[in-house]
């Protein structure tokens, strides 16, 4: 069963929040973020600039030599993105 836009936004926010709080994550989570962002970019009421930033964060994290360091270095952006995703609907 496909996720609707609200479910996708909630999942996006949950993954970003987990990265912010835990300062760690997995490649699978970053790949999920990429898929969610690609899907949400087609929605007219979602800020594509924020989604592009999250997409680049995901891609760079997948290719990072140390994923935890990558996540830790983006703590401020993660907090900002979580707040911004909350405003999408």
Automatic annotation (TrEMBL):
Pfam families: YtzH. InterPro entries: YtzH. This is YtzH-like protein. The lineage of its organism: Bacteria, Bacillati, Bacillota, Bacilli, Bacillales.
């Amino acid at each position: 069963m496909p996720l609707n836009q609200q479910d996708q936004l909630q999942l996006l926010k949950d993954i970003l929040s987990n990265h912010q709080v835990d300062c760690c994550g997995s490649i699978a989570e970053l790949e999920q973020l990429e898929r969610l962002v690609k899907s949400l970019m087609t929605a007219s009421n979602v800020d594509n600039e924020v989604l592009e930033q999250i997409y680049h964060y995901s891609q760079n994290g997948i290719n990072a030599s140390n994923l935890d360091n990558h996540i830790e270095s983006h703590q401020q952006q993660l907090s900002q993105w979580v707040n911004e995703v909350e405003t999408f609907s």
